[in-house]
Amino acid sequence: MKAEISSSLFNNPNSRKLVLGLLLFSVLLLSVFSGILAVSGNLILLVPLLVLYGVFFILATPAAWTVWIIFWGAFLVTGPSAYFIRFSQLQWFTVLVSAALLLPLLLDLLRTRTSNKSMSIPSGLWGPIFLIIMVFFSTVIDQPRFSEFINASRYYLLMWPLMLVIMFGLISEKMIMQLWKALMIVAILQFPMAIYQYFFVVPSSGRNSPWDAVIGTFHGAIEGGGDSAAMAIMLLIAMLTAIALWREGKLDGLRMALVVLFGIFTLGLAEVKAAVILLPVVIGIYYRRELLKRPVEFIVAMIGAVLLVGVLFTFYEKLHYGDVSTHTFKKNQVTSTYDRVVRALDPEAQTYDGRELGRINLLVNWWKNNVSSGDLQHSLFGYGMGATYESRIGTGELVNRFPYKINTSSSLILLWEVGILGHLVFLFILLLGAKASERAADQNDVPEIHRIFLRIGAVGLILLALTMPYKNFHLYSNPIQFLMMLMLGQAAYWSRILKIG
Fold this sequence. Notes:
The protein is mainly α.
């Protein structure tokens, strides 16, 4: 009966006009109401309205459009807006849009559930599920604060819908290919931005390390530096993408050279020692299969990568360090790039005033405060999400407990907030994702170009796993989170399609 009524309603020309008229009237009424609220200037009243508009937009547009909005927003919009006009809050835009992808995803899953009642949970979902359970459990058993939940939701919860959209095929295989190619365009665009930052921003910087201002289009501030390490990791993956595509005849030599050379020049301007050291690691992991098949090619590639590291380190000596003060840390008098690398690994490295500790020293400090002191709960489960984070919304429980920052790397954040167990879950997500990506790349049923992207994804996920104790971009950098979700999503998608979970 309802179907008949609905059919007669939309088949009747007068009824269609009535429905169209009601829709137009509703839109007009909502527009007038929006204008009144905008004039009032009450942000609290505007937020629900903006959320309503966002819901309408997400439901009305294809998921592919939304993913492109997140991509360009993360890589080219939110970073410069924070760098040039100090509008850092815009980084919430990409994660909120990603969270809104849950709407079309749920609608698609409901349709799939209706047509296939035996639908099961893909194996690629268990890692994120366990992580979210660990995050909530660690928070609930400690001293949960609403501000901590809001702060931490950006890096623990809201980007996962992007991975799920890729996993369940809401965007096409062709678009996955386009995203990887767009990443190479983003890599090229870092160079002109780095040129501007080095020649116009660095000379006016009063920092002891003015090169920190060279961050490309990534998030940061002119005065305090930013995500140069995140930019460098992206460049390594983009350069590997160009080389891999060229090697398989999918990209011409000129474009490959453009991506690689611009990437190397940007790495030189930005001064990112750890990323440079990882160059041979990335090349070695990708070319490891050639060790027995084509040993000469493998050896040449590795020698070239090692020589490039030496060239870049020499470049740092001449271009960056010069007469810069080297008395920052109390025990190690650094006089070369090598000394700076060794200092970074010193378990006792800290500044004279004790307001900054080295990475290894911070990990030792976590161990002393939790494991060595016998605090089993906080060792295993941490202090809950957002405990190490500070923003305008609120301050985490641990922020004021120490005179130095304890959230300088992803390993430290996870250990303090979700403990050893939470850290292991996050690490296993990356490593199992790399394994799934490699297994899918070995399947002949996967198109050749996607096998290339899967191998790149496997290397990229291993790279992210290796850099967890290095920086905090796994959790705090929107572009790196996008890349992580892309690599995990494509691995989960092909594993689900091929049923090789």
